[in-house]
Amino acid sequence: MKALHDPALALGQGLAAIRAQFKVPDHFPPEVDAAAAQSARRTPGEHADRTAMPFVTLDPASSTDLDQAFTIEAAGNDLLLHYAIADVAWFVADGDPVDTEAWQRGETFYLPDGKAGLYPRVLAEGAASLLPDGPRPAVIFTTRVAPDGTVKLDCAERAVIRSRAKLAYDAVRDDQLPDGFIELGDRVARAEAARGAARVDPPEQEVERDAAGHYTLRFRPIAISETRNAALSLATNMAVADALYAAKTGLFRVMAEPDAGAVARLRHTARAFGLDWPQSQGLKDYEAGLDPRDPAQAAFMLAIRRAGNGASYVPFKADVKPWHAAMAATYAHATAPLRRLADRYVVRAALAVANGQPVPAAVESAFQKLGPVMGKADARAGQIERAVVDLAETEVLAGQEGQSFAAMVTDLGEAGARIQLCDLPVVARTVARSVTPGEKITVRLDRADPVRRELAFSRIA
Fold first, then answer.
1. 66: how many CB neighbours lie within 10 A of its CB?
2. What is each CA distance from 410 to 14, 51, 264, 267, 303, in whole angstroms?
3. Long-range contacts of range 176-179, CB-CB < 8 Å, 24 or more positions apart?
4. Where is average pLDDT lowest: 69-73, 143-147, 242-246, 448-452?
5. 309 pLDDT exceeds 70?
6. CA-CA-CA-CA torsion sign (202, 203, 204, 207)
7. Distance between CA 193 and CA 289 in Å, rounded?
8. In which band, very low, low, confident or very high, does the pLDDT at 365 lie, cut at 50, 70 and 90?
9. In this structure, are residues 285 and 196 in contact, taking their beta carbons and an 8 Å threshold?
10. Which domains does the chain have, with CATH numbers?
11. d(CA 391, CA 19)
């Protein structure tokens, strides 16, 4: 959940209501817990011993469900990224109670006060997690990263690894990371620029409560270590996607470009924040230069994230090139199997393809069914995220009824005009008539209802 951070649990009551509304599960059925506990006792028997390799993990400090560990080595001018992925399939068999429950959930759901995991904690934060407290089974993908940032999957194997350290984004030092970590991130970034990729990593919104009991929203920029770490997953996922596509199999993550209407709304939003976006400059070029340390630009990065066409999952189809517009590449999700159901099957397929073996029939069958399942889970996660943001916005504005705010009209609809407040990262609706997109108006806050998570504004100028 990157949209909102609430470390003091200031929104506790409202979050409880959201959990109830969207039926966020707070436990696993007893038979699932029992099956997971039994699976957690499995001893790896098909895994090579790679415990001598110096793997580390890099995540938020509080994370315990660790999907990935990595180490890097030079190979001439190339860099070899050894990316160990939690071997969830070793613990979860097709059709067992844990698998059946995972198909119901689809993914882990995140809220500021906690998460509802895809798998029971005994696996996700224990036996399957790549924690540094003992050997763990994993699937190691070795990706060759050329000087220009292009990637290729060299090999894949099941192996037992031992993480040397659990590093945290906000405290890690460069000397704690494998040699080549910074260079690899730079190579991937150069390749993204060359492809015309348009990934946006907006900062987190943090909600705080001051001594007087008032709520405020502020931004926490993404740490540079987090951006570089994301490059490891990106490189691996692209290499896996290319390998699967060449083998005429797989499940791919696809996303279309933002449509003309979305771009037009974003231009109005940029004006609302006082940003200079030349009319001759496209969205990709403009967003590449945004600085998340600037509050207005940070807010605009969030607006871009919310305006894009949603991504989806599609299985391999002959003569159809799967494409992810933001990545400007063929792309797959393989690196977070503890948090996304689809990744477990993509990992299994890539492991088979890399070793010249047929993809298991159960995996091929799953690829045909996962699209709707993951789409439903993604939609539910999006609804939860939107509800949390709405809750934060109403809490921040509660008590300010009657005050006026500068706003920019970004769109018109049957429910009225959509507006972006100029001084806060708040999007709302107003019943104002006779307005046009791009028009700057003044609105009065008539109601801020945290219980219903509703804001009501009326135009006054």
1. 22
2. 28, 55, 8, 8, 11
3. 176/56, 177/56, 177/58, 177/225, 178/54, 178/56, 178/70, 178/71, 178/72, 179/72, 179/74
4. 448-452
5. no
6. negative
7. 11
8. very high
9. no
10. 4-256+311-397 (no CATH), 404-459 (2.40.50.140)
11. 12
Indicate the pairing of strand 57-59 with strand 166-168.
Answer: parallel
* CA atoms of 236 and 438, how far apart (whole Å): 41
User: The tokens 């943090």 sit on which residue?
Assistant: 206
Residue 299, pLDDT > 90, answer no
Residue 26: burial class (beta carbons within 10 Å; 0-12, 13-18, 19+)? exposed
Token look-up 């199999």 returns 249
**Cα gap 55→230, rounded to integer Å:** 16
Q: What is the pTM of this model?
A: 0.89
Tokens of 251: 């499940």
Beta-bridge partners for 59: 168
H helices of 59-134, where? 88-91, 97-105, 121-122
Gyration radius from the chain CA atoms: 23
| Dihedral sign, Cα of residue 29, residue 30, residue 35, residue 39 | positive
The tokens of 430 are what? Answer: 């107003």
The answer, yes or no, to whether residue 352 has pLDDT greater than 50, is yes
Nearest to 371 by CA among 254, 244, 452: 254
Strand order in the sheet with 68-75: 48-49, 151-161, 136-145, 78-86, 68-75
Task: Enter the tokens of residue 68.
Answer: 């990935």
Q: Is 36 left (phi over 0), alpha (psi -120 to 50) or beta?
A: alpha
Q: How far apart are CA 115 and CA 385, in angstroms?
A: 12
What is the average per-residue pLDDT within 14-28?
A: 94
Q: What angle do CA 382, 244, 360 make, to 5 degrees?
A: 95
Task: Please choose, from the candidates 32, 1, 39, the residue with its C-alpha nearest in 3D space to the C-alpha of residue 18.
Answer: 1
Q: Give the torsion sign (CA, 41, 46, 52, 55).
A: negative
305: tokens are: 């994230």
Distance CA 212, CA 379 (A): 37
Nearest-angstrom CA–CA distance, 255 and 242? 17
* Whether the predicted pLDDT of 431 surpasses 90: no
Structure-model confidence comparison of residues 430 and 233, the more confident one:
233
